[in-house]
Fold this protein.
Amino acid sequence: MEYLELINLTFGYEKDKPVLNNFSLSVSKGDFFSILGPSGCGKTTIIRTIAGFLELRAGKIKLKGRDYTYMPPHKRNFGLVYQSYALFPHFTVFQNLAFGLKIRKLSEKEIHQKIISALILVNLKGLEKRYPGQLSGGQKQRVALARALVVEPDLLLLDEPLSNLDAKLRDTMRSELRRLQKEVGITTIYVTHDLVEALALSDKIVIINQGKPEQIGTPEVLFYNPKSLFVANFMGFQELARGRVIKMNERMVEMQVEDEVLKARRGAGVNVGSIAILVNRVGSFEYSGKQENKLKGRIISKIFQGDTALYFVSMGESLFRVEMPLGSALWKEEDTIVLGTDPNLCIAFPAEE
């Protein structure tokens, strides 16, 4: 039995337009489980149904084997952190953390002990008397996390909690959040549209497509072995070229692209004679052209990125990106180049009809 089970969840704001349609998911105890997908795919709806804020049309929510489907939100012992933090501005840090504990009718001594322990956990000891307006963005985020953890919840729900932070602070908080989750050992559901966040934090990830799970797996499995074009695009692959499949075996395919024959790993649904889309990563090219897959293209434009340069390359009707370490390739616009890419780093998927 899994720790958290979402069984055939169906929900919609409009009667004939379900946001979730028979959505199912299982989460093991202690896992950091990320829900990843584009805007509007149903990520936040999932977390709000788990919290009990939305009434399902159908389906069940179970935790530790117990049915939570119709349990009121205030009776679910869940911690919840939003991207807006939702701290009480007129309460001190101590009072914000004490709020949930007082509702649970703990003694003053227990409340004080739990709050101090939680503040030590998030490195905020000594800031008990400050108000939210006197805190930095990172400190507010830590207070929100401490408030969620201080009640010792059965489940921690995080809805894009780092999205309001600047890039450097977001990186710091990402490491801090992972440390906290592992130290406490709490089962965590994390909603994000940020691929880097999901890869860095998660034990498992589910990619959501129009309210349904497209693929579930570890970060490594999803990153290297996407099962569909949708997942590949979301995991950072780009469309390199389209062509007709002329040969294949159980693992690899050969495609006729312009005047070249390119090889790639075989994605599900690809057949000889069909048109396929070949995808790869922008950083998987070699300037030497020594790899088995060779591509001749023309530089359209270049973007300076610090340590790397991003080139936009035209090849027949295809336009793709190439990322190279700065200094390894000094191409100019309109230069004709020959690139190589490893067939094992390319995947072929069926082209949409």
The chain has eight helices and 20 strands. The two ends are 41 Å apart (CA to CA). The mean pLDDT is 92.
